[in-house]
Amino acid sequence: xxxxxxxxxxxxxxxxxxxxxxxxxxxxxPLAFYRDIFPSGTLQNKGVLTEGVxxxxxxxxxxxxxxxxxxDKIIDSYGEAIKSDGFGYLLxxxxxxxKELKKLDxxxxxxxxxxxxxxxxxxTVSRHNKxxxxxxxxxxxxxxDLAELKTTEGKAFAIMPPISYFGKKANAKxxxxxxxxVIDLDGVSVDNLRYIINHTVRKSVLFCSPTYIxxxxxxxxxxxxxxxxxxxxxxxxxxxxxxxxxxxxxLWNKYTSEFEDRDFQQWGQAYRVVGSLSKLGAGYPVTAYKxxxxxxxxxxxxxLHPSDxxxxxLESYRPGGVTGKTLxxxxxxxxxxxxxxxxxxxxxSDKKIFPWLYEKAKDDTKFYAKVGSRYHxxxxxxxxxxxxxxxxxxxxxxxxxxxxxYNRFVDEDDEVNKFxxxxxxxASKFYDPAFPKWxxxxxxxxxxxxxxxxxxxxxxxxxxxxxxxxxxLRKSGEIKDTRFGVEGGNKRGTRLGAKDxxxxxxxxxxxxxxxxxxxxxxPSARTSEIIRDTKLCKTTVCKWLKKIKxxxx
Length: 553
Known about the structure:
The protein is built from 20 helices and 14 strands. It is an alpha+beta fold and 553 residues long. The longest helix is centred in the first third of the chain and has 22 residues, at 3-24.
């Protein structure tokens, strides 16, 4: 299907959704929308430092208006402009100013942009000795008066999470409070929207009513404003992510979206700012409609399956076990811990470890990544490469070579979904020893949409289990298979972890022989007596009784 036809369909769907929403709900202006998310006093006043109060942070890509504002600022700083540059701008005669303006034009690539074509500011950055040119995006603080929201009006790219932060960077370390939970539904048609309204807003059958429904272009953002903001402690982030994923699993189905593949997101995900442009371009802004009131975590929990619910209050996730020792005492007692956790001196070796893990991740993140998960797939690849001590240059070269592969299903003129070098540079930040800890198997499966077969230890310790996954070491004799305690592993010659410590030969039927011998001596013995006297586990005894006597226990 030609892209122009798809875009035309998307624009028609957007217009139909706007008509349906405006006929049933009140349209909310961006200022009122964000005032409801961040009530007065929630954010800091500009120029006033208030303890315990954070700021919202939005990110946007600067355009021609930002370029012209900087240009006028340079000209104003050097007095009256008396010279024309031939493009409609007045320039002062001063050579220093002329150089500054040329530098500005070069940085913003203004000489390549004419008319309404976007001006993009680029900058050269260095990542692990790799010099790359990327498009600049600005992070800006949103204060209590919300005056900075005017900057996002009409911007082609502007995103903000419903979270307040301490400091100037929107990262997990600086997160202060979560003010709303947002579910992003892609591929929502007008029929899907009508189903959502009937089964959430009117009857609350599928789920409780969202506070706002935001028309984001191709899809919808369902905003659930919380009655009480959630303090972003470390132990809170994982259960909130689990809660959001459970909500998405319930709200995203064949009746609410035309897409089958669900997109699960983290607790700190940012969304397009209301008032900025959607992916459909000029004339199709992101709009918000008031559909309900604030909700509580208890109310959200009621609609979820018991296995998906989180424990409340959230303080129940607070880790226990404070040592009661001072930092100086811990420094003496736990020097390794002090070096890693306090000083951050993580030992790094040039020797590769678990190369098979990196090779598997390299294939999975390449062939299972799809539009919407390509960036996160590369983040996983860089994090695992860091864990496996793969050289950065090798991983970066692999990631850079995937740009064309990742764009194989994207039209050449589709600038929105095109995978670029900027995405590779941003993902390369995850090449750090601190990141692999969050690459759990569940997260790996969720991002790539695959199922990974779990491994069994078979009585081995963790160290022995991991070693057994390096075949060439086993063949060379550097490590030995100690599942049954032979070949120099366990001196007693028993399977590690077994209750029965009797030395036996390494045969598959050794447990069967023990059961047979016991039954020969005690023909009328019950199953519980065999388990007690032989010290074999219940499943093993039942297995061999079924085979020997045909007893189904």
